[in-house]
Write a structure and sequence with these properties.
Elements lengths: L5 H30 L5 H13 L1 H42 L5 H16 L4 H12 L1
Helix pairs in contact: 1-2, 1-3, 2-3, 3-4, 4-5
Length: 134
């Protein structure tokens, strides 16, 4: 350990951390290229070739040119996942409530709405849900 000073260890850790961050950014950009429905075949191929042949410059250019729309696509994907989850929960709650438990389904929906708005905590939501389902 004497032949590798502490400052060199910190420099190595810094460069390793930056390299890992760059890899995450590279995968994020490549994923965004293929997820974008506005880009078609040649556009996607051009961006992929640029990112692979000139990785650092290609990723930087992509972020400058398409960074804002990249954020919008991420936001839209998160909203779509949230809406799909809420629709699934409504569908599952509606199908289980067909045996006369319609009021408990409505109570669960009200509890979920209160939790979503932040009126009740997650812990209170779980306790109330257990009471309703018992």
């Amino acid at each position: 350990m004497d032949d590798y000073p502490l400052l060199n260890l910190f420099w190595t850790m810094l460069w390793f951390f930056l390299w890992i961050m760059w890899l995450f950014l590279l995968f994020k950009v490549v994923g965004d290229i293929f997820r974008d429905h506005e880009l078609h075949g040649w556009g996607k191929a051009g961006w992929v070739v640029l990112v692979i042949l000139l990785p650092y410059v290609g990723v930087l250019i992509y972020l400058i040119v398409r960074g804002k729309s990249m954020g919008k696509r991420d936001l839209q994907a998160a909203q779509d996942r949230d809406a799909a989850f809420k629709a699934y929960v409504r569908e599952a709650a509606g199908s289980s409530g067909s045996g006369g438990g319609g009021s408990s389904v409505n109570d669960l929906a009200r509890l979920a709405e209160l939790k979503e708005r932040g009126v009740i905590s997650d812990e209170d939501f779980q306790k109330a849900k257990e009471k309703l389902l018992a």
